[in-house]
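Can anyone check this?
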Amino acid sequence: MSYKEEYQKKLVSPEKAVKVVKSGDWIDYGFGHTKPIGLDKALAARKDELKDINIRVVLSLSQQACIEADPDGDVFTLQDWHFSGYSRKLHDRGRCYYHPMIFRNQPLFYRKSIKNVDVTMIRVTKMDKDGFFSLHMGNAAVRAALDVSKKIILEVNPLLPWAMGGSSETVHISEVDYVVEYDSKIEVIPPAAPTEIDKAIASHIIPLIPNGACIQLGIGGLPNYIGSQLAHSDLKDLGCHTEMLVDAYYHMYQAGKLTNKKKGIDKNKSAYAFAAGSQFLYDWMDMNPSLASYPVSYTNAPHIMAQNDNMMSINACVEVDLFGQISSESSGTRHISGTGGQLDYATGAYMSEGGMSFICCNASYTDKKTGTIKSRITPMLPQGSIVTVPRTQAHLIVTEFGVADLAGRSTWQRAEALINIAHPDLRDGLVKEAEKMNIWRKKSK
């Protein structure tokens, strides 16, 4: 049987494909853009026939039809490995739950610890002549989920770009139980416009980046803005080894800055695990041999990224306490985001020869209830806040007021360095708190 014949034999409607789902099943939608649209709608239509269905996803980029069709949560429960704004709102209503992880471990979780992947249904590209479909912008840990899934359903969308590997970037028709064809728009995630504070933070980081540096940019407007500014700098021969491919890398490439010539591994190629951005980013990705799609077990492995000299990791956080503990995923018990790869890259970048890990935040914010200014540099993290990067792994913390180097510093040195980059009007109060905590020297500034 030819691949085309096998494809036609397995081609069914979304409604028929989702009949394989039975009560009590755990469903995997993969990562970001691999989440199916037609299959999700067809499964939602079965709400009255099913009970106790759990859906795993990473980074929801659009509404989940199953969740919207079941407002009381009687049938469908969403489980997310990394929160988007959509998942955050659902979590606030008790409709979504977080899967804690260090991102590089997600494929290992599937292969070693998760025993209940009943159906994986994902959105993929058109099939090529050899029977393969591309995982496009959503490699990450999708291949691992497919490897342990009892049933596999593919939703083919011709608008998705073909991502070249790398590794683990495809699925073959021989592995698949059903194929459906369903056209849906591809979600674009344009970066937020930079604030004046973002620009000030970038002005502290860019002068520290040398020619030939290998750049990782985390999720959020600030890292993407810093990357975009690198395109306008005088730097040369920058490289890319990142979990997330964003618009800034395209801008660096167009400006002739992104050559990958100085990389120690994957030389001449930009390595990444997933992508989210503007349509021009997706167009650039399509069949581009200078880009290499990998699972996160590779891109986020500290010993892999550290093979690139001058590895520069740029991420954002919610707040930092005077001990140097970094919280990037919750404010108290309110869940905001996920660990993602921040700890992976904080570790690997520091291991790299000449490498640096930058974690950025605004020095302060205005409390909406009281109108008062409060510090993002806090004496202690609020009760219930999640530590994303422990104080033992923290390196460079950046606000609009400067850079605090915490690596190898004692508790009082850390407190002093962090207070020096806090909002000037709030520093005296932080000093008093540091004194109470016995981490302030009388001779300190």
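Reply from J.R.: I decoded it. The chain has two domains: 3-181, 196-436.
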